[in-house]
Amino acid sequence: MGACASADDRLIGRHLDGGRTDGGFVDVRGGRVRDRAKTFGSIVAGLAVVLAIWGLFALFFNGTGASALRFPTPAETFARLGEYLFEGRSLYGQSIYAHVGASVQRLLVAFSFAAAFGIVLGSVLGYFTRIYAIGMVPVSIFQMIPGLAWLPIAILLFGLGDESAVFIIFAVSSMVITVDVAGGIRMVPAVLVRAAKMAGASGPAIFLKVLVPQASVSIINALRVGMSSAWRVLIAAEMVVGTGIGLGYSIELTRDLLDYVGAFACIAVICVIGLAIDRVVLATLEKAIRHRLGLEEGY
To answer: Per the count of CB atoms within 10 A, which of 65, 218, 249, 283 is most buried?
Structure first.
């Protein structure tokens, strides 16, 4: 029996060790490299699809002669972007780096407040079931208000300028985060809460050691959705509240001057920054949390 068991163990071991090195250890470093290469490859493939669709549409539109204006091609757009980035070409009195810096600064300020507010309010609504039904009514009402519909309130409170843009971003993204965080807290299996109570855990301990860790993936997803909403609203807000600098403000000027290549160059920068925040920063954090919770394999 011992020999049979030993043979079975060796057979199972050979299957389990299929991805191991000669020493019987998992190639952690190689696994991480492969994982990062796979992520990078998927991003590149997705960008290639976008560029192909963009290029084909521009070719078709320009070939029809339906408009006296040309639809910017990827080559024209990135050539102009290279001038902004590397040749010091001014973008309406400012460098593109100044415009990007102003937009990112507004985003970080507004999103920091929105994330803190949304996580706290969402956690409270998700934890206290008695106030959830009532509390979600105003949250849902505020969430239904489009971003630019906050413009009259923002101008009434802060006038034209940065403060109005920050307020609009906060108003939109904080409600998105609140809804997703509350939903994530409420999705934690009740059996885990009952088990914690049977073990003698108090309310704060249950919240911090059971609900928050189990809902961490939902919280990260809430931040991802909130960030994408904040980034979109930021650009729109900069176009209408008179910030004087920023990517949205630049797009507004390019539109007025019919400089569509410059507008597309700004849009390309917006897409790259948004993609980096979502796919590199927040997606990596989500993957790490999912792996720690045992929801997916990883290295």
So the answer is: 249
pLDDT tens-digit map of 162-181: 888 899 999 999 999 999 99
Q: Judge whether 228 and 274 are in contact, CB under 8 Å.
A: yes
16 has pLDDT over 50: no
pLDDT above 70 (res 244) = yes
Selection from 218, 224, 220, 233 nearest residue 110 by Cα: 233
Query: Residue 58 CB: number of other CB atoms within 10 A?
Result: 19
The pair of three-digit structure tokens given for residue 175, joined into one six-digit string = 């409600």
Do 235 and 200 meet the contact criterion of CB atoms below 8 Å apart? Answer: no
Number of separate helices (H) and strands (E) present in the chain: 14, 0
Q: CA 212 to CA 192: how far, in whole Å?
A: 12
Looking up tokens 């339906």 gives: 66
In degrees to the nearest 10, what's the CA dihedral of 288, 290, 294, 298? -50
d(CA 182, CA 225): 14
